[in-house]
Amino acid sequence: MTPIGLWRDKTLQFVFDRRLTFIRIGIILGLILAALATGKIVNRSGSIPQLTIFATISALGGIIYYRSGRMENGILAIMIAACMLNFFTLPTGTQSRIVVSLLITMVLIGYWFIRLFQDKQSQLKSSPINRPLLLFIAVSLVSYGWSTILRDPIVTIWPSFPMVQLGALAVNILLPLLALFVANTIKDTVWLKRMTWILIGMGTIVVIGNTFSLHLDWLYHNGSSGLFSTWVGSMVCGMFLFNQKLSRWIRILLIVLLAGWIRWTFVRDIIWLSGWLPFFVSLVALTFFRSKKLFAVLLLAGVVFFSLNFNKYYQSIYVANINEGSGQRLELWQNNWQLVIRHPLFGVGPAGYAPYYLTYHPLDARSTHNNYFDVLSQTGFIGFGIFLWMMGAFLVIGNRARRILKSRGDFEEAFANSVLSGNMGVLAAMMLGDWVLPFAYNQTITGFDNASFTWIFLGGLVSLYLIVNSREKKRTDFDK
Known about the structure:
Blueprint: H1 3-17, H2 19-42, H3 48-68, H4 72-84, E1 89-91, E2 97-99, H5 100-118, H6 130-149, H7 161-185, H8 189-211, H9 217-220, H10 228-242, H11 248-268, H12 273-290, H13 292-308, H14 310-323, H15 329-342, H16 353-360, H17 371-404, H18 411-429, H19 448-479
Antiparallel strand pairs: 1-2
């Protein structure tokens, strides 16, 4: 055989022996190029430096995944990007911008789907959230096409609206998919521990930066808004109340951190009802789960405290919010309800009520500031019912995990109670703002940053339930 033929055979054998490695590299490069192409298409300003930075971030992410072979690292990357990379975004040609956490999520979920279709052994884990979550995504897609075809004839859209609607659709789909991705990816509670302590660490940075005016808003402003404080408070309080294996010094630091967040959300920014009320709902739920007696004592103390300071808080909360226009929300919800009645099945599509408002209510064309009405108007009664089913499934799973892990006094019990309580805070927050599925003309799609924490930890709760449930079944079978 000639030297060229020998070299060719060795090369082919080398490629064949490492074919899985080359396939993995090809997928990573393909996703990077696809994301770059998407960014270039939507980036009408043609900012080459920003696209170059994104390409670098994507390449680094691909290298990290390739070296570790663990998609769980991608979940941690989304969290860090959501809170600590707020200074970098990609323009879209509209007032909204694409955040890094959204880009990482797109790449990870895209790769995950490819693996699901490629590997016959890969399949979705069976869980109560699968059916409602996938149905909600399907209804969101249907509502997009349905609303476009059946849009009222007199409703006029503007040139940027189709792009905004696509962005809103992507966010409404990617956030639930993020929970499904986390639930199916995490198979070991060590990753839940890393998620928890990364969140607590970032919460520490944020509260220190805010308290001492370190001017770090450019770093974390977007990611630390919304329900970030609720999740930090819930995880911190849950770890303190339930994780008995923590050292005394860590527990003291957790209490200090919790006090710092209560001071920042309630004392310093008391007028922002949707900032501290969900936070307190989660803390009250955690206290109830930990001890009924402690709950009763704290409830009595709270009633006495607010009774003695009624006038102060009445003025600083109720009157201040009325003066800022919050009292008009009933009118906004009434307008939204009238729109839903005319489009009851699948609603008016992602971000769809904006052009309707400008047509029918041009002098009062504001967002609902209520995620329930947002979902109802965008996906109709069908989508809204499925959404409630999905959120209820998360509650059911959380309660099951809490009961299985009751009295363990370890991280798993603390995590289950913390996320279940945080979910209760989330449900309360949805009445006050679009913190779970950000509305395109209010938070814009940059709200993906702070909204991602809700879906990541809900997915983590499902993962924990599947882990402990499988473990309990094995233990029961062994005892038999």
